[in-house]
Every structure is written in C-alpha cells, then in structure tokens.
Amino acid sequence: MEVIPLGKAYFRDRTINFGLKKEDRRRHVYILGKTGSGKTTLIENMIFYDINTNQGIGYLDPHGDSILRVLKFIPRQRLEDVIYFDPSDIEYPIGFNPLENVSFEQRHIVASSILSVFKKIWVDAWSARMEYILMNTLLALLEFPKTTLLDINRMLGDDQFRKTVVDNLKDPVVKAFWEKEFARYHTSFRVEAIAPIQNKVGQFIASPLIRNIIGQEKSSFDLREIMDQGKIFLANLSKGKLGEENSMLLGGLLITKFQLAAMSRVDISEDERRDFYLYIDEFQNFATESFVNILSEARKYRLNLILSHQYLDQVPESILKAVFGNVGNLLIFKCGSLDAERLEKEFVDIKSYEFINLPKFHIYAKIVVDGSPSPPFLATTFPPKEIPEISYEEEIIKLSRIKYAKNRKLVENKIFKKYKETASSEDQELAECKYCGELFWKDKNADIEICYECQEKYKEGIKLSELTSKNLDVSFKSKNPHKEEKEVDILENLLKKLKSE
Q1: For the chain, how far is it from start to end, CA to CA, in angstroms?
Q2: Span 15-55, pLDDT tens digits
Q3: CA dist., res. 62 & res. 75, Å (int)
Q4: Between the CA of residue 342 and those of 30, 35, 83, what are the distances in Å?
Q5: Is the distance from CB of 52 to CB of 75 less than 8 angstroms?
C-alpha cells in the first residue's frame, strides 16, 4: 500500500504520521497559504517522495527557485527520466508546438483552451469579435500540417498562405467562415478586425526567446509518453526571466497539452493508465476557464493535480467552485482573515482565527481516507530537507540540452527559411554537429548530424571525450571520491555507421 507521507497529525494527546494513499491522491490536492507559511516546502517534499519511488511527475514553477532546488535532489538512477524545460536558456531552445498532432476530436478543445489562455492574458483588450476570428484561425491552422502559433499572424496577413490553408480545409463551418465571411470583409473593416490580434500575437513572437520555442514545428517532448513512462517533467517558468505574460502563456499551453495527453489515454483501460502527478505552484497564473474541465475529468485518466497558491481572491469564482467541488484533499496553511472566513464553511468546527494564527509548517487538513472525507484536523508538515552532498544539477541540464534542445542558430535559420523563403539549397539543410556543436550544411537525406571534420577525426581514432570537450562533455560525480569519474558517451550510437565505413 503506497502512502505519501505529509506530516504529523494531532489527535487528542498524541501525534501520528499521516499521508495519502495512491487511490486518495486521485482526488487531487489543494494547498493554500500565505508566503512563507511552508507551501513550497510541502510541494518539494511530495515531489522528492514521488521521484524516489519512481513515480511520474510534472512541476510548473513560475518562480524558478524551487525547481532548481528539486534538480539537486534527483538521484542518479533517474537522471535519464528528466526533461528540464527552461525557456530562458535562449541558446538551447526546446521545441513546444501546441498545434502539433491534434486529432479531429480534440481540435475544438485545443482551440478553446488556447483561447482561454489568450483571454486571461489579454483581458483588457478582449472582445467577442477578436475571439470569433481567432477561434476560426486556430481551427484552420489545426487542420493544416506543420503549422505553429507563429502562423496566426501569417494566416491573417498573408493572402497566399491563407488561400493554401483554406483550400485544404475539410471542416465546412470553418471553411465557410474564410470563404464566405472573412473574404468579403471590406478592407478597412478587415484591418480594424484583425489589428488587435496581430498586435497581441506580435508582442509574443517578437521575442526570440518565445519565438524559438513555439516556432518549432515538432515538439521536443511527448507529454503522453512522459505520463505513460513515468518520467519527470520540470518546467522553469520564472516570471523574472521570461516576463509575466510569457510565463502565463507557456504555463497555460503546457497545462492544455497535459489535459489532451491525459484524455488520449481513452485508448487504454483504466488499470493500464499509470498515475501521473502534476504540481502547479501559484496556479492562479494558469487558472483559465478550461481548468474547470480538467479538474472534473483528469481523475479518470490518472492525471492527479496538486495545486498551490496564496489567497482565494487570486482565482475566479467559477474555478474556486470547481476546486472545492472536485478536490478531495485540502491542506490549509496560515491565511488572511477574508480567506479564513470562507474556509470556515469548508472546515466544520474550525474557526477563522485558528487559520489566521497557524505557525509556520502547521496546517488544517481535510483529506480523503479510503475514498471517504475525513473530519478536519490539525497537523504539522515536514521541514525542508538538507541538500545532498552529491547532486547532478549540471548533468541534468546538459542531458536535457543534448536530448531535447536545439542550437539557437539552427532553430532561427529554419524559422527564417520558412517565413522568408530563403533556403540556401533544395538538397541541403543547416544542422548542428552533435559533437562539436558547430553548424554545418548537410544533405537532407543524411541521418547522421555530425560535421565532416568530426567524422574524419572519429575515423582516425580520436576519443569521443576529445570530440565532445567543446560543449557536450557529460560526466557523473562518483559516490566514492577516490574513484575516477565515469564519462558517459551519450551520443556513441550516432557514429555506429561510421565504424563500418
């Protein structure tokens, strides 16, 4: 019986350890409390437990500090399971395309979810007409291959591209909008209608940091695979580095893709659906209207949410109702007077002043035990863990760059060629050497992305460690300081063909 330990509960004159069983965690967890009350420490301790028991987890951190601490605690045996998504790592962008590989049945869900993200960010400029045009734009792009969010403005402003997309449409309603409605807009009316969308979308794609991520046609990671294989997805969405709107955009889009990945599990039985725990700190940043559906449906797909934030007014009332209606495990740290008054209704026999006066690392909890709600009780959560002597933070970052990221110049070149139509050659494309990191032109049909100079050096017998010394040397710290560090040749298999030549 798996039980994640949360702390010590007080019952009359004794204390006992308490936690949540796997079945009860499927009812989700909601954590509320002021800054400095202990929320983040609780989240981290839960994550450490999940990682060390080989669970699959995702963590969206809008501050970035906590996720860097989590990196230090990942054990050696789980390094290969980590996908570290850091959009601020501008030289090595990881691709994320929300429009990629969306089934016919999910297109309206994706379009609506993306609209919800945009609406939350552009709340002051939002209008019904803006929503109408943007919805039809997204639905059209979802039908056309190899499109990205960069194509929104292209769809609105490039007549030839728009014609190509519309000619390809099979959805009669969307096709009718573009052929019989949008095409008949008077020029001045069209400019007025699409200008707000172009301006807002343009603000995002003007940033190379965001453009190089969402402009890649193929995502670097597969969230369904991450969930099914129990991997560790860590998204550093630091508002300080990305800006608040960019952080909200990426976080909201990631949550949408997690929802779709979970729903795609309909093709396997419930017993085969591996539990996956998605931690969302400061979740009000990403709490869109689509969150109501996620909370109500995620459980049956084994997507188990852990939501945390500071005070109730941060979240729209409709979403709060969904939280209190669908979340079975409530963990409340010290909170303000207004929140305390409302929480009295959820916690029978607990008065508002008791929430207000809670010391650090103390909570009032109301949890699910064997499928049934427990009475509220007082408890303490565990303190922060000490950082281990040996950590693999640098190795994890390097591994994620190697496995999931691309060289910035390579990404920018591909985006430039796509939108400016300036390909250098029909038979060649720019590639990044997997060993030295330099860019070179390779034949499109070649499946080994290693520059010719490195290929020749390898044939001459030069060690891989010398080839990778520029930027891809990945070594692991030995637990025994007297033993030499072992070098792991991550890309050895890429040169197998060369050995036989």
Answers
A1: 54
A2: 999 999 999 999 999 999 999 999 999 999 999 999 999 99
A3: 24
A4: 15, 19, 39
A5: yes
